[in-house]
Amino acid sequence: MADLGVGICGIKLRNPFILSSGVLGIARELMERVGEAGAGAVVTKSIGREERTGYKNPTLVELEHGILNAMGLPNPGVDNFRDELSEISVPIIGSVIAEPGCEEVAGKLEPNVKAIELNLSCPHVKGAGADISREMPIAVDLIKSIKGKVALPLLVKLGFNSSLELGKKSLDAGADAIVAMNTIRAMAINIEMRKPVLSNKLGGYSGPAVKPIGVGMVYELYQIAGDKTIIGCGGITNWRDAIEYMMAGASAVQIGSGIFYRGIEIFKELGDGVEKFLDDEGFRDIGEIVGLAHE
Ligand code: DHB
User: Fold this and answer.
1) Ligand 1 center to residue 109 CA distance, Å?
2) Which atom of ligand 1 is nearest to the CA of 59?
3) What is the 248 CA–ligand 1 centroid distance (Å)?
4) DSSP E strand boundaries for the chain
5) CA 27 to CA 165: how far, in whole Å?
6) Residue 35 above 80 pLDDT?
């Protein structure tokens, strides 16, 4: 049987299927359950210096081809959250809100996580934590200050608005991997109520509709990433989607809205489906398909 194990920035994972940030990665029991369901790693909800309560309901709506959400980066703040992460049996990646002082947050998470993911592309929050992926110098400074503070691998999560140049600059500034991509800024309007559905009005769109956009972004990033790692994210709901991202150049993939559609059983479905594909097609190691669509 084909080997699904991958090495991501020097971290060994039993498989490349990672729970994305914002989904279930907020409490120890939930993260343990995702690990038991077969995830290779878990990314936490994005954590900031201070507690945030987030937006009022409604914060999430299912649309015809995807999901729209605007939570407002709710999180308990790093001092209340860090203990939630001790002694979890699945590898944890700590997601950090891009805000001044985020290197301190990364430093406080460091003892309990295997890597840091910098969320600099939340598509609808204003002020601290806003999408700064078009503010190149600010993004580069944050990356450098985190790398100066923690010895862990740093993943940088880009969004739909992020340029390839930001991807390149992030890697040059010391990022070890790029995650592409975050949700896409979007809106749904209730025409009878004559107003936006979400309390925040704008939200982030994810799910099947965004998958080709994510795959395209991974493909282009792969061409400039050299030997650095690309992690795919966006609209993966079945094993074929995961393989598509990997053939585009992703060494691992993150699952977010896929949990909404398939439940945490999706991790086993992905593992079984990808393993069978690799066996049927004569691959012995999942690494062999990474970037195959480029050749
Ligand atoms: C939220 C944050 C994100 O980065 C995102 O893509 C969608 C929603 C939030 O917490 O509101």
Assistant:
1) 20
2) 11
3) 25
4) 6-8, 11-13, 17-19, 41-43, 60-62, 67-69, 92-97, 115-119, 154-158, 177-180, 184-186, 189-190, 195-196, 203-206, 229-233, 252-255
5) 35
6) yes
Q: Is residue 1 part of a domain?
A: no
- Its pTM stands at 0.96
Residue 128, domain extent: 6-294
Contact in structure between 220 and 248 (CB atoms under 8 Å): no
Structure tokens at 72: 């407002």
The answer to whether residue 275 sits within a structural domain is: yes
Ligand 1 centroid to 47 CA: how many Å? 12
Q: Give residue ranges with CB within 6 A of ligand 1.
A: 22, 69-73, 119, 122-123, 182-183, 204
Residues catalogued as catalytic:
122
Residue bearing the bigger pLDDT, 224 or 83:
224
- Nearest residue (by CA) to ligand 1, atom 5, is 122
The reply to whether 165 falls in a domain is yes
95: pLDDT confidence band, cut at 50, 70 and 90?
very high
Here the CATH number for the domain that contains residue 167 is 3.20.20.70
Please identify which residue in the block is written with the tokens 């390839």. Answer: 164
Q: Give the separation between CA 100 and CA 122, rounded to whole angstroms.
A: 15
Q: Which of 13-27, 32-46, 122-136, 181-195 has the lowest mean pLDDT?
A: 122-136
- Beta bridge partner(s), residue 233: 254
Mutate to test the pocket of ligand 1, among 122, 162, 213 (most ligand atoms within 8 A of CB): 122
Q: What is the mean pLDDT of the chain?
A: 96
> In the chain, how many domains are there?
1
Residue 204 lies in a domain: yes
217 torsion bin: left (phi>0), alpha (psi -120 to 50), beta (else): alpha
User: Residues with Cβ < 8 Å from 1, sequence gap 6 or more?
Assistant: 275, 279
What does residue 102 show for φ and ψ, rounded to 5 degrees? -70, -20
